User: Fold Heparinase II/III-like C-terminal domain-containing protein from Kribbella solani.
Amino acid sequence: MPARHLRTSSTPARLAVALLGTAAVFATALIVPWGGSTPEAAPDPTRERTAEPPTAPPGPARVNTYTCTPYSGIARPNPVANLLKDTYTWGTTPPTKVGDGTGNIDWRANPAQNPSWYMWLHSLRWLGQGINAAAKGDQAALQRVSAIARDWVTDNPYSWKSDVGAYESTMHRTNVLICLRQAVLSGLHVGKLPLTYAWLDKTLLDHARFLQENWSGDWNHGTDESLALFGIGCTLGRADLKQLAAGRLTSAIKTSIDTQGSTNEQSTAYAQFNYALWGRAIDVLQQCGVDPGTTIMARRRELAKWLALATNSLGNLPQLGDSEVVRTVPVTGTVLEYAGTLGKQGIRPTQRVGIFDAGYIFGRTGWGETRAFTQESTYSIRFGPAQKLHGHNDHTSVTYTSHGRDILVDGGHAGYKMDGWRSWAKSQFAHNELVVQSASGHPETKLVRSAIKPTSEFYELNDSPGAGIDRTRGVLMLKDPDLMVVLDRGTSEADENYSTLWHLPADQKVVVSGNDWVVARKPGDTVKTTLLQIPFQQATTPIEVVSGQQDPIQGWHYRTIDQRLAAPVVKFNRTGRSASILSVIAPTRSNAVVSYTTTQRGSQLLVNLKVDGVTTTISISENGTMQRIK
Assistant:
């Protein structure tokens, strides 16, 4: 069994953070038709993605059988009638006529200057409904999708590496071309590709050559590329291509998903995407007579546990890294079934808190044992290796759900267009953390210590987000009453502007009372959130609330890349060479009374909290240790 740092509710913990190797991300000089920068990776995998079924038990080995991959929902808004008009639709961009009506497409079109729209145009996945119809004998559909695909081949001769849309979509387009080849055979009721379609096998070999020479490495891009390359080898009977692709998959799994189930993507949405992707890898290898081995299956089982622990009380994955609001897929027969069905089906997990070396803490008050699943409180905390791939500058940041709703949210995922919105969404300012105005680094963050008890958990994290700047965050999570206590401390060699940011959902209306009290509530809701700024080693300063600000950008929430909503951010500020900011976040019924007093006991500050009739006391030592003493 692999070594783990996953703690049950009764196990105290001290975590040693393992440094992960830096994954190489390709970088080339490209001609970008939309006038921006190259996208960092394929656009969001969660967009209209159909969840893949659990991997079936191994059946009899078959040779040269390749299952055509689904079109990830991209084909759905592109019916055959639109294809016959050379009309393409993606995202919120209106249907766009991209050809002359005969299948002659303008492959440089990009009316919204959106890199995702452009990349998916070149992927050819939008032809999916037409290819499915062609496979059933629809000759008009076959003629049109064949014309469009051949037009792409004609207008984008090998190598198409100078066009980022064509480059990025190679793996997706490869699968579409294989699907088209299968549709030709079944739609024409032939066992051998007609000579008039010889171009199809030639372009598949060109795609194989491209994939051989331009492998992206051990992350989702490289996995998709390896599967596409394997698909060509399987389809055309090329054992050398199959062997190369299978070898890459065997190597990549050890980096893509670690022994604890964390992926190297630094994104919860991409973690779920990788679960499906590696399930497909098992299926693809088996269907074409290659034994996938045991490592892929073992790592996916650990990833399933990771995803279950990450699932919040609303049934969603917290928005960490490039992640939209994504529901956890309830895969039957795995631990995800219970988490994804909000406790309605499957076996209830026993692990309440998980700490992962890759930089994640997921915790909850329970799994619905004594209260409804949705009424539990859940949280995430980020730390670990420096930012890469789909990660954001979110170290030390937290998310929080309680009382059946989001309490603290992440700024979200702004898409892949390289503009100010994406820069903000990835920056420290879009997360619930202590930010330092001049800091621009994306550092490694260490989990210094942790203590897990039946009704409380304490964590302390430390990093250096800029030259001469030190940042320490202590987080104390309580159950009954459910609340979060956070102590942020910072030091710097020069005067700095420090702010502890609390990002609230867009529907919250905020009322500030003095320097220590904020109440946020959706009008008419039965739940409110009280945020307290309590003096600790420093006087408090006036509380600031920002919402919908554009210069500089602040106070927004992206639930999806197409849905940007103004959302309040509460700011507790300090200026100088040090900062000490003590925050309490208390979600309660809307008519509940919340109050506090403080007393000094030696070197310890005692915070006496009364929350909805329940009294609790927190002690805070000079060194930042926080614990529940009542």
Notes: Residues 383-588 form a domain with the Beta-galactosidase; Chain A, domain 5 fold (CATH 2.70.98.70). The first strand starts at residue 87 and ends at 90.
